[in-house]
Amino acid sequence: MIAYIKGILTNIQDESLILDVHGVGYELICANPFAFQSKLNEEVLINTYQYVREDTLVLYGFKNEDEKYLFKKLISVSGIGPKGALAILASVDIPGFVSAVEREDDKFLTSFPGVGKKTARQIILDLKGKLVMELSISMDQNQDNTPSTDHYNTFAIADAQEALKALGYMDREIKAVIPKLQAMDIQNTDEIIKNALALLMKK
Question: Where is the Helix-hairpin-helix DNA-binding motif class domain positioned along the sequence (predicted)?
Answer without folding.
Answer: 72-91, 107-126
